[in-house]
Automatic annotation (TrEMBL):
PROSITE patterns: CHORISMATE_MUT_2. This is Chorismate mutase. InterPro entries: Chorismate_II_sf, Chorismate_mutase-related, Chorismate_mutase_GmP, CM_dom_sf, CM_II_prokaryot. It comes from the Bacteria. Gene3D superfamilies: Chorismate mutase (1.20.59.10). GO terms for molecular function: chorismate mutase activity. It holds the Pfam family CM_2. Residues 1-88 form the Chorismate mutase domain. The lineage of its organism: Bacteria, Bacillati, Bacillota, Bacilli, Lactobacillales.
Amino acid sequence: MSELEQYRDEIDAIDQELTRLFEARLKTVLKVGEYKRQHELPVLDASREQKVIAKNVDRLEDKQFEEELTKFFQSMMDITKETQTKMMK
Ligand SMILES: C=C(O[C@@H]1C=C(C(=O)O)C=C[C@H]1O)C(=O)O
């Protein structure tokens, strides 16, 4: 196996984990969405989003990825808000 194929195998294994975790996170987000619907709360909670980002940036072993991780979490939370909004219709 070439070096490139080995790296891609590694990426595939990581993606498998990411997909499993993303699905689990989305299922929990939908429960939050249902709670918000019942309690008439807005989908966006900007202060919670800031906390999620800060907490996870803090967990980074290599701080050079701070900008990338911030974008990653912000993009994911944009998706989860969209999913909650869709579900609340
Ligand atoms: C899931 C929530 O709804 C939104 C999505 C968030 C997320 O995906 O972590 C965080 C805050 C909210 O803007 C929440 O309020 O906890």
